[in-house]
Description:
The chain is mainly alpha-helical.
Amino acid sequence: MAVTDEAILKIKDMILRGELAPGDRLPPEKELSERLGLSRSSMREAVKALEVIRVLDVRRGDGTYVTSLEPRLLLEAMSFVVDLHDDDSILDLFAVRRILEPAAASLAAGRMDGERIELLRRQIAGIDGSDSVEDLVAHDLEFHAAIVDAAGNSYLSTLIESLSGHTIRARVWRGLTQDNAVARTLSEHAAIVDALEIGDAKLAEALMIAHISGVERWLRQWSVRVPADD
């Protein structure tokens, strides 16, 4: 298990044991990391992840608090992490995306016009390193949907849209735990647009395969990856 995930589960245990109740303020970062036997960098990543899934509320200049959720809702939010760890079907979904979306990119290359290319480039330009993980995932969904729409096959579009909706959790988690996820995603998206703009169907297909395969590879490695501590 990755160190960040271990930190998340230890904070979860503190909540379940009643050491932290809804509305309580977390101990200072240094104290909490020493108490749990984890590095401060791991604690920061864990807090950031728990803020995204609404378990913790980070109030700038005040501290970090457990959200005032009822126990049932709190446990439901924590299932975000557990489900992603235990559900191997997510890999199957990405494997199917790896088959269908490159085909869509290949079809789209022959149908692209200046307006569609400009839309894709505006989507990329609208994201930078200061945006939240949710903003990056929203961009990713819109970007891929625009390419699939350009392919002009409604059945293919429906299939991919259904698959994509089931991979949002994995995309959020990748954005939280993978180094340079924003820069990597935007760079790969830009390369795909370049291929679409010149109408190179084979290149667009190959770049889309590499793009989706990167996320799939990260998923396979995630459960055994242990990031460096400070």
